[in-house]
Amino acid sequence: MIKEVKTQVNVGVEVDVLWKAFGKDLKDIVPKMMPNLVKDADMLEGDGGLNTVYIFNFGPDIKTMTYQKERVTEFDEFIHRIGLEVIEGGHLNHGFSHYKTTFQFTSTGEQETLIDVTISYESQVEEDTMPSTLVFIKHMENYLMNGAT
User: Fold this and answer.
1) Smallest Cα–Cα separation from 60: which of 40, 81, 80, 88?
2) What is the pTM assigned to this prediction?
3) Which residues does the UniProt record annotate as the domain Bet v I/Major latex protein (predicted)?
4) The pairing of beta strand 81-89 with beta strand 96-109
5) pLDDT tens digit string along 73-86?
6) Pairing relationship of beta strands 67-76 and 53-58 according to DSSP bridges
7) Which of 31, 52, 50, 51 is CA-nearest to residue 40?
8) In the predicted model, is pLDDT for residue 130 greater than 60?
C-alpha cells in the first residue's frame, strides 16, 4: 500500500531561482551544495524536463547506498511543480518498492517561497522519510542564498 507524508517549508529564495535550481540545474547544483553526500550527478536522458533521468552517485557520508537513478515524472513550469521518482538503486535497495518526492513552489514574497513537499512511498519497513528531504531543502536554500546559481 502506498503511503504519503507531507510537509511545508518556507525558504528565503525567490521562486524562479528555486525553480531553475530544481529543474534544469539540478545535476550541477546538488554535488556542489552537498559534496560529502552526492559525489556527482549526471543527466542520462532528457533535458531537465518531463521524463528526464538523473543519476546521483553518493559520496563518503552515505555508507548504505552508492547511487540512485531518478526520473522526472511531473514537470509543470506554470505552477512550479516537479516530481522525482526513484527508478533504480538508492531507496529501492533498502526496502522501498516505490519512492517519489514532489515539490510545489509558491511565491510568498519577493525573496520568499513556500515549498509543499509530498513523499509517496511503499515499503515493508517503517521509516521516517521526511528528515533527509528537509535537510536537502535547507542545503539548497543555503547554497542559493550565498549567491551560487
Assistant:
1) 40
2) 0.87
3) 1-147
4) antiparallel
5) 999 999 999 999 99
6) antiparallel
7) 31
8) no
